[in-house]
Amino acid sequence: MDLIKKITQKYFSKRLLNDLVPEEWIQAILDSNSSRKKGKCGELKLISILKRLGFKEVKNWKDFNKLNKCVARFSKVFSIKKVQENLNVKIKAKKQGKKLDLIVKYKNKRFLIEAKHLNTSGGGQDKQISELIEILNLKEKTPNISYVSFLDGSYSNILLSNSKAGDKLKTQRKEIKKYLRKNPNNYWLNTAGFRNLFSDLTKF
């Protein structure tokens, strides 16, 4: 009887949870997990491109400072605080403690990169696009620091095209152009643009 009672209590507790939790919350959690996975795939994709161009992935500051061509992922070793101290940057994002994805070093140049993958707009996706646009508005005193917003997926092609657009898409395009004019050291890139940027850079 005790076992049946426990099973029954567990069933009703689970049923109650499902009845009370709004469907929108569940979808938001699913979207969040999906975007994290896609973001991680974006990181790996960029690292793979860089490795083919001769960059080495490093795990510590000693190697980062020693090598001319390398890439590191934001982590406990490459935390926001450590990056600010070692690169003498502020990373003044509206979201305090905002963690980017990659740091790329080529000779005296440093690229701080946020990578996302989106196929559609709406809901959580619009928030992610806003975060990428915000990155373009960041600026450091030293001219060798660039911020890169990398967007992979079909929505990246829509944003970069000259196709007809509704108000939301028009606003996104307008903001991207505005911040790129304001901060010419920064970049908004898709996969082809990323590959071309670092391929051209390493020719010199």
UniProtKB/TrEMBL annotation:
Highest taxon of source: Bacteria
Q: Which InterPro entries match?
A: Restrct_endonuc_II_DpnII-like
The residue ranges of the Restriction endonuclease type II DpnII-like domain are 30-154
Q: Name one GO molecular function term.
A: type II site-specific deoxyribonuclease activity
Gene Ontology biological-process entries: DNA restriction-modification system
According to UniProt, the name of this protein is Restriction endonuclease type II DpnII-like domain-containing protein
* UniProt lineage: Bacteria, Candidatus Portnoyibacteriota
